[in-house]
Amino acid sequence: MAGAAPTTAFGQAVIGPPGSGKTTYCLGMSEFLRALGRHVAVVNLDPANEGLPYECAVDVGELVGLGDVMDALQLGPNGGLLYCMEYLEANLDWLRAKLDPLRGHYFLFDCPGQVELCTHHGALRSIFSQMTQWDLRLTAVHLVDSHYCTDPAKFISVLCTSLATMLHVELPHVNLLSKMDLIEHYGKLAFNLDYYTEVLDLSYLLDHLASDPFFRHYRQLNEKLVQLIEDYSLVSFIPLNIQDKESIQRVLQAVDKANGYCFGVQEQRSLEAMMSAAMGADFHFSSTLGLQEKYLEPSEQSVEQEAMQL
Ligand SMILES: Nc1nc2c(ncn2[C@@H]2O[C@H](COP(=O)(O)OP(=O)(O)O)[C@@H](O)[C@H]2O)c(=O)[nH]1
Ligand SMILES: [Mg+2]
Questions:
Q1: What is the DSSP-derived secondary structure letter of residue 48?
Q2: Which residues, in sequence order, are CB contacts of 65 under 8 Å at separation 6+?
Q3: pTM higher than 0.85 for the full model?
Q4: What are the transmembrane regions (predicted)?
Q5: Looking at the predicted structure, is the pLDDT value of residue 1 above 70?
Q6: N or C: which end of the chain has fewer CB atoms below 10 A?
Q7: CA 165 to CA 238: how far, in whole Å?
């Protein structure tokens, strides 16, 4: 049908623990995308969000309110939020009716932060899978506070959560280390930044943990966890500073490649643009080194020297 509105839509499902920066990301990314000329619709799926900083095209709060659910069902904030997502899952017609008039837009979904929604609860996954059936091609953008890099034990738990999320959500996936501008304030990193972003040989992390008298007793457990992460070999991160355009652009390049936007039907894409997206991964390592220099004080010691001290 000539002139019919395109049915395929692209977008991002922004997930991650509470406080990891999802809402701030949606604001920053939507402004960046608009500057690039994309028509963006931000959809708030998090009933716990208050005072949204961005212009919201659809708000789940119109369907179900967290406060009402907590009062009516005598639930706490966590249980209330899970109920809200189950309610949305049972009322997807409402969501479809809201999204259909927005076809032709690029969607950003600001999702709730309850970790169980992304690791084992079924509602959010089922909502994403339904949206895929509506020909909405989403990349899951999983934000993790870069603060976790400063503590090896927390970093291992973050790797486990990220892996579980990738396996459970079943969408093309990009992991981000958010709030890179704060990483220096969080404390000294034991290794260079690329060690964390590329998830390099985790045995160094185990050795580093063994130097802590508390974690020495958990070495076997940590070894098994690390082995699991390395066996799957799926988790890596892109560092993000939401204030920095270059950083957002790098993230967008990975996201566009993951959901196929860069090869999409909606825009005339030059061969050059496609190639730059396809080649993006090759420049990724050098860009992480750039960020290392930008956000971290140079260490007087090399990684090898530090490893020798362990
Ligand atoms: N310095 C800094 N603060 C950030 C960044 N992203 C988010 N924040 C702050 O972190 C807090 C939580 O962010 P928010 O976007 O509400 O997280 P959400 O719960 O995942 O939606 C807010 O106070 C933000 O201002 C960032 O990139 N840098
Ligand atoms: Mg939020």
A1: T
A2: 47
A3: yes
A4: none
A5: no
A6: N
A7: 16
